Amino acid sequence: MRPRNDPRDESAERRIGPHGNVLVLTENTDLVADQLSGDSALGTAELLRAPLMNNISTDEIIPGWCCYRYDEKLGDYAYLGLRDKKVAEGALKSLAPRIIVSGEAKGCGSSREHAVYAEKYAGVEVVFARSFERIYEQNCRNVGIVTCTDFDVLESLLDGEELPLAAFTRRANNIERAIVDLGGLFGFNRQRSVLTPEFAPARPLNVVEKILQRALSPRNPLPANASVSVGESYFVTTDVRFSHEYVTPMAAGMFTRQFGPHARLEQPDTCYFFQDHLSLAAPVLRRRENGDRLIARVEDLGVRQREFAELGGAHFIGPREGGGSRAICHNHILEHVARPGDVIIGTDSHTCTGGAVGALAFGVGATDIANAWYNRETLVKVPAVVRVELDGTLRPGVCAKDVMLGLLVHPGIEGSRTLGKVLLFTGSGVGSIGMDERATLCNMAVEAGGMTALFEADDVTHAHLARRTPATPAGAVPSSDPGARYDSTVTVDLGSVQPMVALPGDPRNAVPLASVREDVRVDKVYGGSCTGGKAADMDMYADVFRLARDQGRSVPAEVRAYIQVGSEAVLNHAVERGYLDLFEQVGVTVLPPSCGACINAGPGVSERPDEITVSAQNRNFPGRSGPGRVYLASPYVVAASAIAGRLSSVEDMLAGGART
């Protein structure tokens, strides 16, 4: 990237010194608690020799219920959800660590910018980790928190050296470095920094590069005989922007402060606002000591969101008459909005669901969406692309959820191999995978650390677009050029995929179901969320429950089983096929559309640490869905476990439920 009339004064480059407290997040949470209480017998250097905590989710940095606020109170809640529950309210803010250190994949999970603000309001200025999840790192950069993966820099700091900002950001590109240097994205824009990104010579492009190149903002036009460069950042023009009630009020406040009280949404017809995350939260919140205050905050979030959406003239997809929501945001975008080649951003990490129709869809934080509301632009670092070749067909009783759980532990994907990359599903087997199942694969790409995932448009895509009312014309459909470059290729024989389950704590704890030898008795079963609440998921639940009914079986009295539809369209699908009656006959409670239990905000959440849930949702981080332990599985396994009363395959359920 070439500086062109860069307004920054190089002589005044920001420097970072060794003063302030350091918090080392070790795998041993007792050591973390000792540091927070001031009782640590170990110095920072000794703590850094202990195993560092990996995969710290944003649910752990800031629990979902804390996100009903978006002010400096967030600093009191920082790390309140950390595993083992050793961090008390206000503990981090009391220590006020200037520097926090952890291991791999810091900030996995939700896109909530509340997490980085919680750290910022607790005094954090610099975050070191072995690696960072994309959205978390971008959120840090957007609010001026420095991130660094170079532990030699940390060692120099601890040795007493004062270092220039460039030492911390040397692995960033120039525009990322400038955003941090200028205090965040809004500071960068106010400074009207004119950094011209570098371009590569013209070359064959894969579909991701082609979409981004076509969407380049006039702010960084494509030169003649050039192409976008992997690892370089460009501003691109979005086609669709959406937000839900968790984030809209926070981002709306930023929008008004940055652009003025009379600022309006740019092209509001391409903006969508959803009330889907908290539409069934009240019964869960009432069980909390401060439940009435939390419910009032939830209601206030909804009011503020509706007012902002209506003032801007955007689409508002709100509450459903009779309870719940009209649709979960990802289901609605998939069903009605996304088109091949679109650039779609949403304030939710599972925005990548839209990749099922061939859109480049990815999650962003509050700062990014507020900026995009004003000018439709978002900053994108061109990602490397991993080809996932799907060959053959799936066996009966095996589905996309099993494929994805298997991919999370595949040697070509596990660990941090796909951080910030895009999974491109291709191969001879993609034609056998329907739209809803493609959505499951794309939805969970973020659990692999990916930026997003997508399928190139084909007959399945065009049939899906034709079923919409009115039918959606595909327009110019991008596809990869022969000779395009890919980071790597992973091959999956669909015929060899077996039922999988993710053990509690992380989706990446995936193992074959048959390898779980213990008898896991369940208290609750949940089939829903954007991952498990689609029409095809309802078909799978129904297949199992029909077998159970024919055997005279039903959900045991000691088990609570819930099936939650993802949209009104899915509800209609279930009604037309008699599924609601079937589910009721076997003892399952059907819930209206809402994110619900997946976000700890609806029926199906656990209430005690010893409760066990088998769920079709996408995440099982500590505290994500209540204090209990959550196993992730396919709709088939979820339904079978409901009938068996224990973690079970369909075959085991039919054999009597006991697993041996």
From TrEMBL:
Entry's Gene Ontology molecular function annotations: iron-sulfur cluster binding; lyase activity; metal ion binding
Coiled-coil ranges from the UniProt annotation: none
GO biological process, any: proteinogenic amino acid biosynthetic process
Ubl conjugation among keywords: no
Record-linked InterPro entries: Acnase/IPM_dHydase_lsu_aba_1/3, Acoase/IPM_deHydtase_lsu_aba, Aconitase/3IPM_dehydase_swvl, Aconitase_4Fe-4S_dom, AconitaseA/IPMdHydase_ssu_swvl, IPM_dehydratase_rel_enz
Keywords linked to the UniProt accession: Iron, Iron-sulfur, Lyase, Metal-binding
Residues in Aconitase A/isopropylmalate dehydratase small subunit swivel domain copies: 98-147
Chain ranges of the Aconitase/3-isopropylmalate dehydratase large subunit alpha/beta/alpha domain: 239-645
Classification via Pfam families: Aconitase, Aconitase_C
Protein name: 3-isopropylmalate dehydratase large subunit
Lineage: Bacteria, Bacillati, Actinomycetota, Actinomycetes, Kitasatosporales
